[in-house]
Design brief:
5-stranded mixed sheet; alpha/beta; globular; 32% helix; 4-stranded mixed sheet
């Protein structure tokens, strides 16, 4: 018996007014897979909160998957059968970047953060590079990685689904947002 699964990816922070919830088909949902970031704090937190709240009433399972997995699935979908090394690089702001490393549909190194001067050194030689943040770092990645840079790829629900189906062991129970920096306290 197949469990009906809902995939939610909100790390880009688009549709901030909550209208995305109204578009969900919630009938018969037995499992929810949510993107855990990194990305928009509000988008990720609202998606996880919705999933956990719905799960309480609907008695369904909630699992998390890092949002770069959706990007990787979408890049690999454009090259069927390929398993080249891939680095998904995002803007962590304040001169820092986050990186997640993949070999095919396998996350080989979870998200980590680096300073700008270490960016090129921390991406393996020969790895292709994609970003969910082309608006902010497209020019830099083109300059640093030249023809290895495949461009901007926004994470989607379809990407989450493709990665989860290809590598279910990557799904984490009780999802938590990926925080790159500790909370600021006064």
């Amino acid at each position: 018996m197949t469990v009906k699964t809902l995939y939610i990816e909100r790390s880009t922070g688009e549709c901030r007014d909550g209208a995305w919830v109204e578009k969900l088909d919630l009938e018969g949902i037995g499992r929810i897979v949510v993107g855990t970031g990194p990305g928009s704090f509000a988008g990720i937190r609202s998606a996880i909160a919705f999933a956990q709240g719905f799960a309480l009433g609907g008695k369904c399972e909630v699992l998390g998957l890092p949002s770069p997995c959706a990007v990787a699935a979408q890049v690999y979908a454009g090259a069927p059968g390929a398993s080249f090394p891939l680095a998904v690089v995002g803007d962590a702001r304040r001169g820092k970047f986050w990186i997640a490393l993949f070999e095919g549909m396998k996350l080989v190194c979870p998200v980590f953060q680096v300073d700008r001067d270490l960016l090129e050194l921390r991406v393996p030689m020969g790895a292709k590079v994609a970003t969910p943040d082309p608006e902010r770092i497209d020019a830099l990645l083109k300059e640093v990685f030249v023809d290895r840079y495949v461009g901007g790829v926004k994470p989607t629900e379809a990407g989450l689904k493709a990665f989860a189906e290809a590598n279910p062991s990557a799904l984490a129970p009780e999802p938590l947002p990926i925080y790159l920096n500790p909370a600021v306290r006064d």
